[in-house]
Specification:
There is one protein chain. This protein is mainly alpha-helical. It has a domain at 6-139: Winged helix-like DNA-binding domain superfamily/Winged helix DNA-binding domain (Arc Repressor Mutant, subunit A). Helices cover 56% and strands 7% of the residues. The protein contains 10 helices and 4 strands. It has a two-stranded antiparallel ribbon. Strands 3-4 form a two-stranded antiparallel ribbon. Helix 3 (67-73) packs across helix 4. It is elongated, with a radius of gyration of 55 Å. Residues 152-164 and 226-240 have low confidence and may be disordered.
Length: 254
């Protein structure tokens, strides 16, 4: 009982009480409030069965317990407008009627323990609660199994994959492995290793752009001395006598 969700336990127990007709809501239950702190009657039509299941669980946990303690347990804060909120106990009529109906079904009984007296759970009521708790526990474990399977299986990449898709993928894996084994292996051509004797190729951009050495080569090929040697011999011979005549004139003048 303590290991299951208590809200789910109360809901399942209320459905069982309604099915077995253990408790029957009176005529005024459709328009009665559960206490002075409430503004409207309960919106749930089956609130009587839910409150009866909650009262049975409370008697199981806190018995012996009476109507006054149950009023305090199910009470609440009342909105008093501009005045500060104040705690009000729940109505005692519906709690008293529910205890009387549960006692008539032999699910609770009156008992006194020391200074406390009130209703306690009977073996029949304890058996009913344990049976409902077992059913709720089984439902919670069944709902938790798919979530655990998704966490432990890394093959499922996304939660959007259905069971059919994952089954198709698992069936296609052996066929893909068999096809990979039977397929011939193709080796890629090996590139020749670079040695010291084989210089690395320069990029095409570097071959197109002229370097500083290429700019100096035309200067070395210029035939400057050849032009001086290829002069007309007649001009050189004519220049020689004219120079000698001028020297003779200078000597005579001196």
């Amino acid at each position: 009982m303590y290991d299951v969700d208590q809200q789910a336990l109360v809901t399942a127990l209320a459905a069982e009480l309604k099915r077995q007709h253990v408790v029957v809501p009176p005529e005024w239950a459709a328009f009665a409030k559960t206490g002075a702190h409430r503004e409207r009657p309960p919106a749930d039509e089956d609130w009587w069965y839910t409150r009866a299941a909650s009262v049975l669980r409370t008697v199981y946990l806190l018995g012996p317990i009476g109507t006054q303690k149950l009023r305090t347990r199910y009470g609440g804060r009342k909105n008093r407008g501009v005045a500060p909120d104040r705690f009000y106990c729940a109505g005692g009529n519906h709690l008293r009627k529910i205890l009387q109906q549960l006692e008539a079904a032999k699910l609770v009984k009156q008992e006194k323990k020391g200074a406390h007296k009130g209703r306690v759970i009977t073996p029949l009521g304890r058996k009913l609660i344990h049976a409902i708790a077992g059913v709720v526990s089984a439902e919670q474990k069944a709902a938790a199994k798919p979530a655990k399977a998704q966490k432990t299986k890394p093959a499922v990449k996304t939660a959007a994959k259905t069971v059919a898709e994952s089954a198709a993928e698992s069936a296609a894996e052996p066929e893909a492995k068999a096809a990979a084994k039977t397929a011939p292996k193709t080796e890629a051509p090996e590139e020749p290793a670079m040695t010291e004797a084989q210089p690395a190729k320069k990029p095409a951009r570097e071959e197109q752009e002229p370097g500083p050495q290429d700019e100096q080569e035309p200067k070395e090929q210029e035939p400057e001395p050849a032009e001086a040697t290829e002069q007309d011999p007649e001009a050189s011979t004519a220049a020689a006598p004219s120079g000698g005549a001028e020297e003779k004139k200078l000597e005579e003048g001196s």
